[in-house]
Specification:
alpha+beta, Helix Hairpins, Heat Shock Protein 90, 2 domains, five-stranded mixed beta sheet, two-stranded antiparallel sheet, 6 helices, 21% strand
Length: 232
């Protein structure tokens, strides 16, 4: 009964969050549609309202995609993965998926030889894209995203770490402590599931996500993946 009560409470909390996240863009869409119906609407105002509709429908799509990714059980289908190569591809995909990143410089430092990791390429790509998306969105006024890979040791075992450093405003202690929490976000239009999904993917591989950040000094997010998974 206690477990059932806790599950119902979790479902209720999740439902409330989803309702809130859906209701906000729907309200914006409804207002934009009402504006488009005005007979005296100027062409430039119509273009602005259409852009708002486009942005808010994208926001709803992101929410659905993130919800599906977060709710889906993660069962990695592993093979040897060249992580630096995958990182380069993920950065390209993330950059192409963000509308305007002309104000952000992306520096890739992927030349250091790294050991292959045992991982699910699709899941790791998704996690890497989420990290890049977060970093790009943390620099609305411009900045630099530096991405690098390195061999590392954790718990006495060989790992590969991918470091993403952005020059955004950074996080204070409270925000940093909650950055992996589902639905926690400080950004308008964010779903708050990006790093939560990254954290799940990392843990499913026996790895982890490390976050170093100070307000006003940017943020470094590191995805640390073991070269070999422990037998389950």
């Amino acid at each position: 009964e206690i477990v059932k009560t806790e599950q119902l409470a979790a479902v209720g909390e999740l439902s409330a969050v989803i309702a809130h996240e859906v209701r906000n863009p729907l309200a914006t869409i409804k207002n934009a549609v009402a504006g488009l119906r005005r007979s005296e609407l100027r062409p430039e105002d119509g273009e602005t309202l259409l852009e708002i509709l486009d942005e808010e429908t994208d926001r709803l799509n992101r929410l659905v995609d993130d919800l599906l990714a977060y709710a889906k059980p993660i069962s990695p289908e592993t093979s040897a993965v060249d992580l630096p190569q995958l990182v380069g591809h993920a950065v390209e995909l993330a950059a192409a998926g963000n509308r305007d990143i002309s104000h952000v410089e992306i520096e890739l430092d992927l030349g250091q030889p790294c050991d292959p990791v045992e991982g699910d390429q699709a899941l790791l790509r998704h996690a890497l894209i989420n990290i890049v998306d977060n970093a790009l969105q943390a620099m609305p006024n411009g900045g630099t995203l530096t991405v690098s890979c390195r061999n590392a040791t954790a718990d006495g075992r060989p790992h590969v770490a991918v470091d993403f450093h952005d020059t955004g405003e950074g996080m204070d202690t409270l925000v940093r402590s909650r950055a992996r929490d589902p639905f926690f976000t400080t950004r308008h239009g964010g779903t708050g599931l990006g790093l939560a999904i990254v954290d799940r993917v990392a843990r499913a591989h026996g790895g982890r996500v490390e976050i170093e950040s100070r307000h006003g000094q940017g943020t470094t997010v590191s995805l640390v993946i073991p070269c070999e998974r422990l037998a389950e």
